[in-house]
Write a structure and sequence with these properties.
homodimer, 258 residues, alpha/beta, Rossmann fold, five-stranded parallel beta sheet, disordered N terminus, acid phosphatase activity (chains A, B), HAD-like_sf (chains A, B), signal (chains A, B), nutrient reservoir activity (chains A, B)
């Protein structure tokens, strides 16, 4: 075995090499494979991220401290976007074979935060989730209505609307305080033509995401809709009742909603 | 943008550097972060592997051809073992809080192939899943009874048995033809002390994995067992009825069982 010091020196050396070489060649793709200073940490963080996405790690409160740089690289270095785009491709392959009826009751559900629009800028200030959840801070961020689009999901949204799906945007955000700003934010990011934006009303206060979102889906089924797909960044979007014919998990290694 | 040729040259250069540097330092950990010759392929294959583990890509028949080296590196380079071990750690954290009753009916379910014992050597000859499923080839491999243990899962198994769980090994393998050899293979790899090895009988022939395994779990529940956990490398192990209180997906990027 090699000493921790030597490992660190080696890591720094490799990082420098890759950085310099990357700059010399000037290729954007390279930013996707930045090797963080400590390969052992990167291996651990990759395992952790995989376990989060496969729903093996649950109810986690913060990103492991040693994964700060890893998650930063993942989120802004290109891999996150690639992951989203591959999932959207898979969804579109599935969608291609769906035969819609003429009754206008073929439905699709999309979550909002970190599915349609991104809170990455906010979470940058929370050390990409290494800091614990801050409800007050998050609310003032959401009040700005400045969440940027997640481009791959907007593509999906637009395609679904064009095909004729009734798209329901379902969010745990509070209707009363965040209703207007969320509507505007979605609109200014290109989410135009959805059927309904469904938000947490006074009646849903205190419900877990699974209970609240199951209730929403149950009501849509009750109205006669056929839910073909359900996309969210949290497993709590994709668990419970009336899930829809298929669910898709988009990545989010920054926070966990129970 | 950079030309494809320049990209390739850069990739080879980086690979050479990392290989030489790794050898010069002689650190095993480094084998975990081998950067394959083509960073764009590695990024794609990482997205694909994540999507498989999160159950976003389904019913896939072969590993994408461009991911052969990536999957080889993943499976034998250390990351697969790290991924397994992190999941086992998470399982043990969950297990720690379970209070077993005195009636001996607290149960746990483990899948067999690529959960308890590994088919990696066989799949090496099938280009790590880039070749399509070969039922005859797989059967003759299984008949050898030479599947090596997956060490992290044996640790889990041993701990569960020691704590007092009744561990059920549930496999889609055919009882009649593979019963004896599978029992011996599990035994010679250290799986001693399980409650029952449940295999596919004539009555289960032709059933999908979800139907067959749901039936097995339903029967155990009928016998009065409480299924606390259910671990498998396939989503079909973890879907259907009577799933257990928690399910855990261990990685398998080499094949998909519907």
């Amino acid at each position: 075995m090699i000493s921790a010091m030597a490992k660190k020196v080696r890591g720094v050396f490799v990082f420098l090499f890759l950085t310099l070489f990357s700059k010399a060649v000037g290729d954007k793709i390279f930013s996707r494979v930045i090797v963080p200073a400590d390969p052992a940490a990167a291996s651990f963080c990759l395992s952790w991220r995989l376990a989060v996405e496969a729903n093996n790690v649950r109810a986690w409160r913060t990103v492991p401290a040693q994964c700060l740089r890893y998650i930063e690289n993942y989120m802004i270095g290109g891999q996150y976007d690639l992951d989203i785009n591959l999932i959207v491709e898979q969804i579109l392959i599935y969608v291609k074979d769906i035969v819609l009826l003429e009754d206008g009751m073929d439905a699709w559900i999309l979550d909002v935060d970190d599915t349609c629009i991104s809170n990455l800028f906010y979470y940058k200030g929370k050390r990409y989730g290494c800091d614990p959840y801050d409800p007050v801070g998050f609310k003032s961020w959401a009040m700005k209505g400045a969440c940027p689009v997640i481009p791959g999901v907007l593509n999906l949204f637009t395609t679904l609307v064009e095909i004729g799906f009734k798209v329901f945007l379902v969010t745990g955000r509070d209707q009363e305080t965040l209703g207007q700003v969320t509507t505007e934010n979605l609109h200014n990011q290109g989410f135009i033509g959805y059927e309904r934006l469904i938000m947490r009303s006074a009646a849903n206060k205190g419900q877990s995401a699974v209970v609240y979102k199951s209730g929403v889906r149950k009501q849509l089924i009750g109205e006669g809709y056929r839910i073909w797909g359900n996309v969210g960044d949290q497993w709590s979007d994709l668990q419970g009742e009336c899930l829809g014919n298929r669910t898709f998990k988009v990545p989010n290694p920054m926070y966990f909603v129970p």
